[in-house]
Write the structure tokens for this entry.
Amino acid sequence: MRILGIDPGLRTTGFGVVDVEGSALTYVASGTISTTKIEKDLLPARLKVLFDGIREVVARYQPDAASVEI
């Protein structure tokens, strides 16, 4: 099973991908999606960058499950 973990934030959203086999975890990838170059008051544009970034991560790593930190 491949799991995508997301640490959300409007300025920087982090992600990590691991494979799970039994009790073993294997690192696959991690990174950030940043909106710091977009002005703070342009919330729709920032949300679009985050949406597109997460969509790209999902397309690239094809996780079976995802979890989002509160």
